[in-house]
Amino acid sequence: MAQAAVEQASEFIAESVQQATRASGAIADAFQDGLGEARRAMKVARRAVKQGGEAAEELLNDTTKKVKRNPLQTIAITFAVGATVGAVFAWAIKRR
Question: Of 31, 11, 35, nearest to 23 (Cα)?
């Protein structure tokens, strides 16, 4: 009877070890999958940041060229925007 209990415990332990091994393998696979997804997301983010930087640089270059080509128009637009913003602030302050 004691021998049977020892054999039963031994089988239970062996089965538990197999289950633990399978579980640790599944966890490792899930971790690797998550790591792969994180790497792909980082690549996409880097590409987006690079494209955004290039677009901003292009916008700055285009704006600089337009300002150099039309300096009077630039001054008039800047004045109009400033006057409008000033009028909105004055109106907002007066309203209080």
Answer: 31
